[in-house]
Design goal:
With 106 residues, the protein is α+β, with helices and mostly antiparallel strands. The protein has one domain: 3-Layer(aba) Sandwich (Rossmann fold), CATH 3.40.50.150. Strands 1-2-4-3 form a four-stranded mixed sheet, with no helix packed on it.
């Protein structure tokens, strides 16, 4: 089955040309939808760059719709109540420290 990447960020996480450069055009899909109404059932990876309070509001939807093994990657902001499987400290292009959190649905 093809992986689906849903980008539910206000300003976009991936753009079509980046998807193509990475060779993921046959495995990735970008949807411009209401993040509280979109169907997440097919998604295997979801990048989130949302405030903690928004992640908290979205959490019940994600928990209800995601299958076991689905991955969530959050940038800077955690999902309250979820313990990340991995945390990575990175430095952005402008030199600012950032945190990346990987969550895997049990």
């Amino acid at each position: 089955m093809l992986s689906t990447i849903l980008s539910i960020l206000r300003h976009g996480f991936f753009i079509p040309s980046e998807i193509e450069q990475l060779g993921l055009q046959d495995r990735a899909q970008i949807l411009h939808e209401n993040m509280f109404e979109v169907n997440y059932h097919r998604a295997t990876v979801v990048p989130l760059y949302l405030l903690t309070s928004v992640n908290e509001r979205l959490r019940p939807t994600l928990e209800r719709q995601f299958r076991s093994g689905a991955r969530f990657v959050t940038h800077d902001y955690q999902v309250p109540g979820w313990k990340p499987a991995q945390t990575v400290d990175v430095i952005s292009k402008n030199g600012a420290p950032r945190k990346i959190f990987l969550h895997i649905r049990p």
